[in-house]
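Q: For a teaching handout, I want to show students what a protein-ligand complex looks like in C-alpha cell form. Below are the inputs, and the small molecule is copper (II) ion. Please produce the holo structure.
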Amino acid sequence: MSDHSHELPFWKKYIFSVDHKVIGIQYTVTALLFLAFGFGLMLVMRYQLAYPNQPLPGVFASVLSEPVVGEVTVNEATGETGKVLTGDGYNAFGAMHGTIMVFLAIVPLAVGGFGNFVLPLQCGAPDMAFPRLNMASYWTYLCGGILMLFGFFVKGGAANSGWTSYPPLSLIATTGQTIWLLGMVILITSSLLGSVNFIVTAVQLRVQGLSFFRLPFFVWAQLVTSFLLLLAFPPLEAAGLLQLMDRVAGTSFFDPGGLIISGVERNSAGGGSPLLWQHLFWFLAHPEVYVLILPGLGIIAEVIANNTRKPLWGYKSLVYSAIFLGFMSFIVWAHHMYLTGMGTTLSTFFQATTMIISVPSVIILTCLVISLWGARIRFNTPMLFALSFLPMFAIGGLTGLPLGLTASDIHLHDTYYVIGHFHYVVAPGTIFAMFAGVYYWYPKASGRMMNEWLGRIHWFGSFVFINAVFMPFFFLGMAGVLRRQFDQTETLHGAAVQGLTVMATWGAIGLALAQIPFVINFFWSMFAGQRVGANPWKATTLEWTAPSPPPHGNFDAVPVVARGPYEYSVPGESEDFSMQATA
Amino acid sequence: MELLAQAADFGTYGKWMPPNLSVRGGAIDQLIEILHYFMAVLFVGWGIFFVYCLVRFRSGKGGSAQYHPVKGKASKYAEVGVAIFEAVLLLGFSMPVWGEYKNDPPPADKRVEVRAIGEQFQWNFHYPGPDGKFGRTNAKFIDNVSNTIGLDPDDPNGKDDIQTIGALHLPVGRPIYVRITSKDVIHSFAIPTMRVKQDAIPGMEVPVWFQIKEGATTANLLKSKSMNEDFDTAKTNWYRVRHLVASKDYADKSGQIILAEGAGIGLSRDAGEKKLKQLREAGIDSINMHPENPLEVICAQLCGNSHFKMKAQLYTYDDAGFEAWKKSTVPEVIEEF
Ligand code: HEM
Ligand SMILES: [Cu+2]
Ligand SMILES: [Cu+2]
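A: Here is the structure, written as C-alpha cells, with copper (II) ion included.
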C-alpha cells in the first residue's frame, strides 16, 4: 500500500484530512472539549442547586454575565455584590448541557471518534468507503457545534426549553431557540453523512475472509448504531424544520392556537398539536439513547475479551441482541409520554415493548459477565474502566424498569429518578466505556502507551465520585424532587432532602478534580509515553496488525482473515492469542 | 383529640417517598417497592458472581484462560426468569393499577369536580359552585387579577362559580375529579402526596381522579406527630426550617418571645441563621416545628424561568369543613394565597 502521507502539506494531513484516523482523532478531541464544556455548565448549575441564590464562586462569576447571571448584594453593610445564576440562565445551561452532551459530545466521541478510527481498521479497510464524505461529516459537525455555542451570545441567551424543546414553550422562547434548531439541522445532516459511510464501509470494505460473523462486536455495534442514526434522525430533522417555521414563518404545526401568554393572546392560525412534536422528538430520541450506549458496549466487549484472554461468551447472542435492540428501539418511544394523557390501549403497547427491550439488555450484560468465568483477568486501566462499567450500566438498565411501567412512572416521571436512570447508563456507562477506549486504543493512535499509574488514579477517583454524583439522584427522585428545577427548596418535599443535592454537587466537584490525571496523562504520553509496537495488548483483531500509528492506507500488506475475532488461549497454540489476520 | 392526631399520622417528608394520602396511591407504592426488591435481588445475585469471578480468575494466579465456553443453563434460566417476572409485573400490577387510574371515572353525581388551569407560573382552579355546572370560559374575558380563567360574565351557569389562584381546596373521603388544561405552555399537574401527575397541555383537557384518605385533613396533618418535628438549633439546616413554623412559643430567659407559635424563622438564609443564633443564645437547643401548610400541588413540566416556584397550596377538609369553605368564598372574588 502506498505511503504518500509525507507528500501532503500540513493542512491537508492534519486539518482538512480525508484519512479516517485523522478524522477520528479530530472528532475525539473536539468531542472531549465539548464534553468538558458541557460538564462546566453542569457545575455552575450544581452550585446553584446546592446553594440556592448564593453568589457563584469567583471562577464562574468572572466568566459569566447577563442574562445568565444577575447582580445581588452580598453584604448590606459593605455594599459588596456577587453574581447569582438567574432562572433563565439555569434553564439555558440545562438545555445546552443536555444538547451538548448528547449531540456534541457522546455521539461524536462514540461514533465519529471511535467508530471512525477503529471501524475501518477492524474491517481491514484502507479507509472509509467515502473519505470525502467523512471529512464533510466532521466539518459539518464542527459548524453545527459552533453555531450551537453561538446561541449563548444572542439576545436572551441560549435555548432554554430543555434538550427536548417541547412546544409551545420553545415557540415563545428567545432567539437562542432558533439558533438551537438551526444547529440541530446541521448536526443531524452531519450524522446522516457519517452513518451512510459507516454502513457502506462495514458491509463493502471487509477484507477477504472477514465474514459478518467474524466481525468484532465493536463493528456490529457501530453498524446497528449507524442504522439507528440513519432511520431515526430524519423525522427529527423534519420536525426541527417545522418548529423553525413555527418560530420564523408564522406556521402553527405545534401551536394549538388560543394561547394566552402572560395575558396576551398569541397571534397564530392554530390547529397544530404540541404532542406531535413529542412523538417526532421521541421517535428519534429513544433510538438515540441506544446510539449513546451501543458503541460503548462495543468498546467494553473488545476490552473485556482482550483482558480476560478468552473468547467472549455468547458472541452470537451479543450480535443478535444488539440487532434486536436496534429494531425494538423504534417502537418504545411513547414511554416518555405516559403522562401526557395516554389511555390504556396505547400505554399497554408501549409498556409491553419497553419490558421486551430490557431482555436483550439483560442478555448483553449476562454475556459480558459470564465471559469473566475461566478468564485470566489483567487489571490494567482500560479493563478497570470496562469492569466498573458493568455494575453501573446494570444500575442504569434496571432503573429503567420502574420508569417503563406506567403505574410506577406516575410517581417517578419528571423526577431525579429519571435523571439518575439515564445518567447511570450514559455517564458511568458510556463515558466509562469511552475512557476504556481511549486508554485501549491510544497506543494504536499515537504509538505510545498512556501512563498506567495516572490511569489508575483517574479510574479510582472517577469511580468513587461519579457514584457520589448520581446515586443520590435515585433517592431524590423517590422523595419526589423534580428535574429541571432551579431551586428544589421551594417545595416541602424538596427542602427535606436538600442534603442529597449538596452531596451530589460535591461529588461533581470531586469528579472534576479526578479528571486532572487524565488530562495530564493524555498530553504527557504523546511525547513521553513508552513507545510500543503494533500489538502492545497482545490482541487479536485486525487493527493490531497495522503498525502503531498506522500510516495513510493503514496496512503494510492487505490482510487476509483466517479466524473469528476473539481467539484467545486457543489450546495447543504457543501464544495465548491468535490474530485474525494470517501472517 | 390526642387519639385522632395519633390515628391520623400519615408520615412526613424526607423519608424515602413522600407520605401517601391517596386511597389508590398504595398500589403504586407497592409496585415501586416490589420492583426495587426485584432489582436488588438481580443486582446482588449478579454482583456476587461478578466479584467472585474477579477474585478467582485474576491473572496473578497463573495458568491459562479457558478457551471453551462454560456450559450450563444458569444464564438461560436467569434470563427467562427475568422475562417472566417482568411479564408478571406488567400484567399483574402495572396494567391493573393504570387501568384503575385511567378507566371508569367516578360517576358525575358522586364526585367533586374542579378544573385546574396551568399558566406561567401559577395554578388557577375553577369550581362549578352550588349548581354543579361550570360556566363558559373565553380568552376575551381574561383579567389577570379578577378573572384569570376568563369566565363569561353572561353565562348563568357561571354566576355561582368559584375561582382560586394557587389554592386547591378538597374534601377527604370523596372521589375528586380534576380536569386539567393550560392557557399557555405545557405544565404538569402533580401532587406528590396523592401519587397524581398529569401534563397540562394547551388545547386539551385531560381528567385525573383520586380520593384522599379518610382523616387526612390539613388540620389533622398539622397536629400529627410526624409533621411536628424537633429541630436541633445547632445542627439545623436552614433550607428545611424556612418552610416550617413553630408549634409553640419560644421565649428567651427574660421571658420575651423570640419565636412565636405559627411564626417561621425567615425566608432568607441570613434571616434564618440570625434567628437560629438568637435561639441558641437563649439556650434553646431544640425547636418543635411543622409546615405552615403540609400539602402542595406542583408543576412537573419545565414551563419557563419560574417553573420551580409554580405551586399551589392544597387544603383538605372533612365534609363539614369543605362546605364551610365553599360558603365562606364569595363567588367571583378571587382568593389568592
Ligand atoms: C433497560 C432498558 C431501558 C429501559 C426499560 C428504559 C426506560 C426508560 C423510560 C421509561 C424513560 C422515561 C422516563 C420518564 O420520563 O418518566 C427513560 C428515560 C431515559 N432513558 Fe432509558 N431505558 C432503558 C435504557 C436506556 C439506555 C440504554 C439509555 C442510553 C443511554 C437510556 C437513556 C435514557 C434517557 C436519556 C432518558 C431521559 C430522556 C429525558 O426525558 O430527558 N435508557 N428510559
Ligand atoms: Cu426511551
Ligand atoms: Cu408550570
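A: Two things your students might notice: Chain A has two domains: 9-50+86-256+270-544, 51-85. The pocket of protoporphyrin IX containing FE (ligand 1) is lined by residues A 164, 289, 292-293, 335-336, 354, 357-358, 361, 397, 400-401, 403-404, 409, 413, 418, 421-422, 425-426 (CB under 6 Å).
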